[in-house]
Amino acid sequence: MLFSLTACQEAMDATDGPDEVLAFDPIAMGHGGSVRDTIEVVLRSQAALDEALEKVTPLGDIPEVDFEQYMVALIAIPTESGGYIVEVQSVERTGEEIMINYVFNVPAQDCITLQALSLPHQIVKIRRAEGNVTFEQERKRYLCGM
């Protein structure tokens, strides 16, 4: 006997996915700050960056940014304890839309964390592009192995 197996497969459109993946470099991170609201913002000038840096306390110095070639994204999420980490994964442009995808790493119950208000944040430098910017968060829980 001869059997033939076939599978249904959804046709993929060649236009699916981003038009362009934009290069980015992390330039700072930290866990301190003075705001209690989530910040997801793209900054296109030194003045805007200076104003944003009044709200967060990055570890170390922020390198100089050439705002004619780059823009800066700041993501900060207030938490009730330590151990949380914000990490940008990709920056993609589709048409006039720019999507910044990031992971919000959450400590599992087996982690020992500092019980104090925290503001985990990451600042990244992105090749300058014009368009409407949106952010997409993926929440991942990590184990500490205790």
Describe this structure in words.
It is a single chain. This protein is 5% helix and 45% strand. With 146 residues, the chain is mainly beta. The chain has one domain (20-142). It has a five-stranded antiparallel sheet with strand order 3-5-8-2-4, with helices on one face. A four-stranded mixed sheet has the order 1-6-7-9, with no helix packed on it. A hairpin with a 2-residue loop joins strand 6 and strand 7 (97-107). The longest helix has 8 residues, at 46-53.
Features:
globular; mainly beta; 146 residues; 5-stranded antiparallel beta sheet; disordered N terminus; 4-stranded mixed beta sheet; 1 helix
Can you summarize this structure?
The chain has 146 residues and is mostly beta strands. 5% of the residues lie in helices and 45% in strands.
